[in-house]
């Protein structure tokens, strides 16, 4: 099981904003590039968060009307 989750965003600007919102909620995050297989033409940036906090963070973000493109486990983190 992965220790981290990637919240895939549409742009670097969106990822930076998402990280800011997460920080205000007390969820630390790091803007990063996701693995190539998880990218699409419009989804080249992500925010890495602890997997244990991802579900709660997503629920709270959705209440604010903010939804990342998708969420994937970050298999390469912590190696």
CATH homologous superfamily label? Hypothetical protein rpa1041
Rg from alpha-carbon coordinates: 11 Å
Q: Per CATH, what is the topology? A: Alpha-Beta Plaits
Strand content: 15-25%
Summarize this entry quickly.
With 79 residues, the chain is α+β, with helices and mostly antiparallel strands.
Task: Describe the protein in words.
- With 79 residues, the chain is of the alpha+beta class.
- The chain has a single domain (4-73), classed as 2-Layer Sandwich (Alpha-Beta Plaits).
- The chain has helices at 12-24, 51-63, and strands at 4-9, 30-32, 45-50, 70-73.
- Strands 2-3-1-4 form a 4-stranded antiparallel sheet.
- The chain is globular.
- The mean pLDDT is 86.
Write the layout of secondary structure elements.
Elements: E1 4-9, H1 12-24, E2 30-32, E3 45-50, H2 51-63, E4 70-73
Antiparallel strand pairs: 1-3, 1-4, 2-3
Task: For this entry, give a set of tags.
2 helices; globular; 4-stranded antiparallel β-sheet; single chain; Alpha-Beta Plaits; 79 residues; alpha+beta; 4 strands
